[in-house]
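Incident log, support desk, overnight shift.

02:14 A customer reports that sequence design results differ from what the structure should imply. Their input is reproduced verbatim below. On-call engineer (initials T.W.) acknowledged and began investigating.
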């Protein structure tokens, strides 16, 4: 991640195109939300870029501007939306089908939301086995499909007179895969596109096409996408910011809030049993064991990295961590995350904590899409390229350079994000030492 103190940030002039691979529940909730907020019909609750503040200097200075006033972010009125989906429904129809938003937030924007008509998707049944796409691209090979995606991007930019673009993956979880030989270099990847290599996934085709077109890319799913050497190479070559992966919303959000507290107070952990009930398309996709494996790997790493059993063997060595996801259609997008946490305190006496989080999956994800779009655009205008670890705050499985463990503690992640913004603007970093107040 290249970053310069007091960076020369290009102004956010003109329109910003937000590309959304996957115009389903999350994307339609995000777009509909922005349209409501632009009209003054709702508030951007959950969005750091819209409601967050940032402390500057000493506590006694009383300088805490809004984030959006401190750094030059694109305005909501300048956002234009486009995307792809394997079903032909426009964004209004997709939102109605998802059942996340009520008519109160859909009826006033029906005409505007209906204008977001997705382009045919890159889709391969073997990667998302539970869905059967009816609105998909065809081509002679994967290189052809990538070129078609690039053509969609170019046409979208021209037709809407866009100044800049960003892409945020909002599609389904693909089956679990590890990097293979085709992912080793950009040259091998481009050869694989021509040869229709089966290890190249649809999400990787989107990412490749976006990075080739000069579009920063954020991965909101646990898919193996930009976190392979070939696409890391392409991002560096073209000076593109990338980040991921897997939006941190419900149950994992709670883990990254609670686990740092246990560790701070040196409370031991015997086990953490987590189960999820959800009935949306995401739940249907994750009903496939291979797709669930992608999600499970993303979810399981959180506690291990926060609690660091190798440093605290008396407290965390050998703790049991179980994650389950159950597809239950009646629940729809209103996911329930249930956790049973067995902890231990003084002299090893056992205690329990139970959490029942009845959350709304897409409601929690939508503000993350907005923040990532705006911050990734800021990163590009600031000359930042490669992995944007400062955006780990938004992900279950944050990307890092090879050999560097990820930071999962939500509060450290937020400090890192805000210190990055301070650094960009030439402000002092906040360390919370506070010695100056007692000199």
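02:41 Re-run completed on a clean worker. Output:
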């Amino acid at each position: 991640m290249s970053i310069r103190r007091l960076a020369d940030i290009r102004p956010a002039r003109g329109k910003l195109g937000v590309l959304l691979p996957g115009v389903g529940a999350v994307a339609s909730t995000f777009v509909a939300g922005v349209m409501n907020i632009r009209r003054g019909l709702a508030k951007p609750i959950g969005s750091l870029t819209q409601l967050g503040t940032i402390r500057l200097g000493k506590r006694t200075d009383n300088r805490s501007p809004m984030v959006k006033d401190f750094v030059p972010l694109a305005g909501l009125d300048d956002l234009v939306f486009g995307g792809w989906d394997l079903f032909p429904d426009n964004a209004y129809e997709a939102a109605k089908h998802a059942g996340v938003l009520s008519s109160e937030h859909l009826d006033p924007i029906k005409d505007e939301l209906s204008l977001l008509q997705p382009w045919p998707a890159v889709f391969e049944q073997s990667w998302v086995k539970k869905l059967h796409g009816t609105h998909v691209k065809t081509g002679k090979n994967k290189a052809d499909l990538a070129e078609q995606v690039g053509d969609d991007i170019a046409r979208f930019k021209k037709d809407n007179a866009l100044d800049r673009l960003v892409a945020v993956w909002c599609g389904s979880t693909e089956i679990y895969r590890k990097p293979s030989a085709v992912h080793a270099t950009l040259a091998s990847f481009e050869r694989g596109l021509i040869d229709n290599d089966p290890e190249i996934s649809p999400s990787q085709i989107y990412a490749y096409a976006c990075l080739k077109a000069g579009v920063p890319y954020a991965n909101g799913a646990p898919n193996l996408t930009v976190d392979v050497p070939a696409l890391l190479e392409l991002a560096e070559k073209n000076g593109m910011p990338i980040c991921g992966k897997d939006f941190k919303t419900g149950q994992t959000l709670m883990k990254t809030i609670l686990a740092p507290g246990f560790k701070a107070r040196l409370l031991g952990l015997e086990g953490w049993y987590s189960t999820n009930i959800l009935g949306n398309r995401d739940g249907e996709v994750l009903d496939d064991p291979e797709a669930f494996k992608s999600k499970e790997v993303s979810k399981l790493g959180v506690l291990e990295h926060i609690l660091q059993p190798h440093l605290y063997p008396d407290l965390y060595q050998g703790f049991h961590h179980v994650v389950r996801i159950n597809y239950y259609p009646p629940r729809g997008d209103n996911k329930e995350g249930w956790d049973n946490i067995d902890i231990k305190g003084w002299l090893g006496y056992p205690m329990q904590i139970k959490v029942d989080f009845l959350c709304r999956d897409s409601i929690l994800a939508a503000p993350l899409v907005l923040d990532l779009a705006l911050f990734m655009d800021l990163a590009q205008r600031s000359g930042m390229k490669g992995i944007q670890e400062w955006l780990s705050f938004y992900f279950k499985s944050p990307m890092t350079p090879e050999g560097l463990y990820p930071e999962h503690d939500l509060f450290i992640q937020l400090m890192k994000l805000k210190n990055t913004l301070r650094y960009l603007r030439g402000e002092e970093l906040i360390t919370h030492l506070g010695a100056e107040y007692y000199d």
